[in-house]
Specification:
Length: 187
């Protein structure tokens, strides 16, 4: 729950898969920052098995169950629900956005392996980030243009001196600021 939660206020909700061996620190940093800033945050256990489509369906069901449970809390702002994912977890986010269009106010994709093919009304905004070594800028620009055509704003950020896994303190700080800007800033 948010730090210093008040029963007289509505708070955003952020849900994302978290279980990769190389991201628990990042998940913890982002979750704590968001909770301290005034969000409910749910990290849903997730492990990737690219050879079993059933894992995607099982994890999709888990996220929807967590969503259903948390939006029942009176001070969760159901108009401010976000999804986030890292790397292969973007497959799960893609599936959730396609299966439950309009439910998510925004999606945050960090080093995404897949970008969702969004249609008008599926989400209100998109943030993507990647390390410069991955050379994703052209891919992100193309996606940004497609989303502009259906009135979904997308911002992307490329972390200098980073690869697929953003480990540097500066990169973690940049990403934390981007997350907070998406949830609390002016888009």
């Amino acid at each position: 729950p948010p730090a210093n939660v008040s029963q007289n206020k509505k708070y955003p909700l952020i849900i994302g898969p978290a279980n990769y061996e190389w991201t628990p620190i990042a998940h913890g940093i982002f979750a704590q920052c968001l909770a301290n800033s005034g969000c409910y945050v749910a990290l849903v256990s997730y492990s990737w098995n690219e050879n079993d489509i059933g894992t995607i369906n099982a994890h999709t069901n888990k996220v929807i169950a967590v969503y259903d449970q948390l939006v029942a809390i009176a001070n969760v702002d159901t108009n401010q629900v976000y999804l986030f994912s890292f790397s292969a977890g973007s497959v799960l986010t893609k599936t959730l956005v396609e299966q439950c269009p309009g439910r998510w106010h925004g999606i945050l994709l960090f080093n995404p392996s897949e970008l969702p093919e969004l249609k008008r009304g599926m989400t209100a905004r998109v943030l993507t980030t990647a390390g410069k070594v991955e050379k994703q800028e052209a891919r992100f620009k193309e996606c940004q243009e497609k989303l502009r055509q259906v009135n979904i704003p997308m911002k992307y950020y490329i972390h200098d001196d980073s690869g697929h896994i953003v480990r540097a303190q500066n990169g973690m700080y940049e990403r934390t600021l981007l997350i907070n800007d998406m949830v609390f800033g002016n888009w």
